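note to self — DONT lose this again. spent like an hour looking for the file last time. sequence + predicted structure for the chain T wanted, 127 res
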Amino acid sequence: MTSGQTNTLADAIDAVEETYEFMLAYAAQGRAREEPGDDIRDYLRRAEAGLVIIAAMASPNGGGEDQAAFVEMVRQDAARARTAMRFVLEQRAIGSQMIDNLNASIHLRTLLTDLFLLDEALKISGG
């Protein structure tokens, strides 16, 4: 896992994407519950912190109506995905099936698609 704090929008996007990749591997392991040394909660907490940043991001200055509407949509999707992630974090045990269901959540998948699009737009525009 990439160490360090999630402070920027780019860091937040990376945290969510890295967590999703880790969750895919974790889900494939067929664990009934987490074991000592598992990093699943650490990944989920880092992604959850990133979702706070994403849900609070401001619309870019000078962006048009469509850009502002897209940013608002991403913010709402981040808030929904964060709710699902926090629900999982509150459970006493986190098994592979629970993570597989979180991966399949339409809220997380929608957010990931948003973030892939947003990340690419930021890279191209230099933002």
